[in-house]
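Data deposition worksheet. Section B asks for the primary sequence of the deposited chain exactly as it was used as input, without tags or linkers unless they were present during the calculation. Section C holds the resulting structure in token form. Section D is free text for depositor observations; keep each observation to a single sentence. Incomplete worksheets are returned to the depositor.
Section A, Depositor: J.P.
Section B:
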Amino acid sequence: MKFHPRRTIRALLLPLAAGLALTALPPQSAQAASTLINGGFESGGSGAATPAGWSEYGDTGASYTESGGHGGSYRLSHYSASAYKVETYQYLSGLTNGTYTLTAWVRSSGGQNAAYLALKNCGSPEQRTDLPVSPSGWIRIVTPVEVTGNQCTISVNSDAHAGNWINVDDVTFTSGTTGTTGTSVHGADISSLAKSEAKGGVYRTGSGAAGDALAVLRSSGMNYARLKVWVNPADGYNDKAHVLAMAERVKAQGMKLLVDFHYSDTWADPGAQTKPAAWAGHSYSRLRTDVYNHTYDVLSALKAQGTTADMVQVGNEINGGMLWSEGSTDNWSQLAGLINSGYDAVKAVNSSTLVALHLAKGGDKAGTEWWFDNALAHGVRFDAIGLSYYGYWHGPLADFQTTLDDAASRYGKPVFVAETAYPFRLDSDDPLTNQIDTTGELVPGYPATAAGQARWMNDVASIVEAVPNGRGLGVFYWEATWTAVTGNGWDPADATSGNGWENQALFGYDDRALPSLSWFSHR
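Section C:
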């Protein structure tokens, strides 16, 4: 949506309606039916002030149909050259009680006070899904609800500033969950926490009371912790012993555990997959044994202390393979052998532990297909697909959804976001410049504020929730507890190194939990 020339009558009428507030739904429309009418907004064509089957409330001139639909010729749009509040809704009665799912394709300029789809007056608590900011690509969102009073109202809402707009199309309301039951993983990587605490890091509740960071996160709804493990790190943290100790705390909070094997002494990512020093010079055959033994050693110790891993990553962001050069994607047969050694070790400890493979390709459908097509062709075994998706690096949300949906469908595996994050401010809390520190680097529509951070996380979670057939597992935030603490910088070999990520933690510069922790309760 590039622009909207306004009709003269609307331009005259909208100022008269300015200031109308959307309060309780007005009396139900005489158009009430037991099935959704005109969810594709095709009836009436372009320019329909009130789409057939729908009703409007508020600044009604700001709601209309126009050309440019998702699946058909037309769409519902909300727009005005003046600030506006409008609701387009449809009341359904005579429903059979049970679970229903609302699905819609949407686009949004962003910038509104609120723009969301809602299911209300259904006999159960109102359910809302915000429209992600996506000015170009269409995004599918879903909202489940429990109907208990044989009726429900489907509602499209905008509380917007002048020039803000939304498009909605192909709305369906179907009995059952259509495979969508909400995400089960509301997680975060907390690998930095042990070292932070040892170096004097403090964590507080939103009201300022000092407390256990894990307890604060758990109370906000976090239910899954991700811990990386290095083989022999220079600073002694993120090794087997520290993973074991933190796992006890994780499980004591009633959370599940993902163990992320880097198979390195330091960071492993798309730019570096350096073998541990102790494995340097080992033959390929020996490296396969190293992978198996290291994986089995850590996981069996976790199991022995009663903290069995629920999920395991065999490698971290292995776009180009792991344990270079022997495990590079230049040699798929060897990479497959290394991955399968890790898989076998995981299953030898606990057959029900999920094995995930993790790429940093959240917005790259073609690249994800290339990688997993090769993996399957070479007999790689895995249970789930994890993708890193950072919006300021990996492309728009629509590309992310396309990639995620395709991976779930093409490979028949559950998918999840292994890493994502967003800044709540741009300045630094230590001498090191932050990774994201200018407004030009931000995703349009998502400011560097706690509210922007929360909005980003909720919109990412909504896209994972919408993965068809219930294959969207959920989201892990990276890195929730990595605040600026002297001695806990990015380089394990350099105690003076700083932290370029503290503006993307979930605790503020005053050590208090940010309001954005609310995303953990996304349903």
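Section D:
Residues 284-304 form the longest helix (21 residues).
Residues 85 and 102 are 22 Å apart (CA to CA).
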